Amino acid sequence: MTVLHTFAPMAVELPPNTDLGSLRSDLADDHVAAPKGKDQQELAAIVADARADGFPLSVVVVPGNPGHDSSLRDLATELGKNTEGTVAVLSDDWIGTYSDDISRVRLEWAEDVAKYRGNHPEEAVAAFVGRLEQPEGVSWGAITGLLLTLTVLVIAGLYVVKARRGPDAEAVVAPGDDAGSLR
């Protein structure tokens, strides 16, 4: 039975002193939740611009840094269950995200530029949104199609070369002769 316990999913770990109910109600008005005393106007403007561009974003700012940065992703996931689009949870140095329409790889790519901004969540959110608004640099579908096409062309080329050699290549060695002699 200890083996089954080892593979059990870990419990969600939220940052300390997190009240999901108050965060949800704070997000309801302008899609921004920040600690009391923190000016939300600049964050709300960035979020409103992103939403106007068709990117449904909600932002939560938590004070300090939690014990593990993964607790920010856990909080974003919990809030994302009741929120449409993408949720970004920022601490002083980290960011955790959840999205119902953006891949995890793309989210983490955007997170990289938003980390370590200190007590400047506005800069972090602007960098995060800016990265997500960039077109994807690599189209993996196009690369896969190109590799598949090249593979088919190589196979077809080898078939043509083999067909041109044809039966003449086998007639070079006559039966009964030494295996290495040519006529």
From TrEMBL:
Transmembrane segments: 140-161
Alphabetical list of InterPro entries matching this protein: Rv1476-like
Record's protein name: Membrane protein YgcG
Pfam families membership: Rv1476
Record key words, sorted: Membrane, Transmembrane, Transmembrane helix
Highest taxon in the source lineage: Bacteria
